[in-house]
Amino acid sequence: MPMPRWWVHINKRVFNPPAIAGGKRPVLIHVGRVSGTTYRTPLDAHPVDGGYLFVPVYGSSSDWVRNILAAGSARLRVDGTEIDLAAPRLVGVEEAYQAWPDSVARPPKLLRITEFLRMDLVTA
């Protein structure tokens, strides 16, 4: 497990609300697979050719990852603009790092991240 699950609860209640309200971090907007509730999750969004790459620091079984995989789409708010994303898929380290932007540091090996979420831009 990349990050301890108990940290999720602290993050959701303490760190995420100001990150969402501040408007400076990218926010992934997705719908709950069971509840149908709209959720906003602040994440690092790495632009790659034709889409974005996300690092599931709590693993691919995180609710936000499962919600997006079930829905097949999400929206990403970056710098006040919302972008439609589709075709979510989990990719391995090799594929993720081939697409990874050179200007961005990779996640620390200590986190033991083995899967990344990649999504494509929806074109009009």
TrEMBL record:
GO terms for molecular function: oxidoreductase activity. It holds the Pfam family F420H2_quin_red. NCBIfam families: hi_GC_TIGR00026 (TIGR00026). This is Deazaflavin-dependent oxidoreductase, nitroreductase family. The lineage of its organism: Bacteria, Bacillati, Actinomycetota, Actinomycetes, Mycobacteriales.
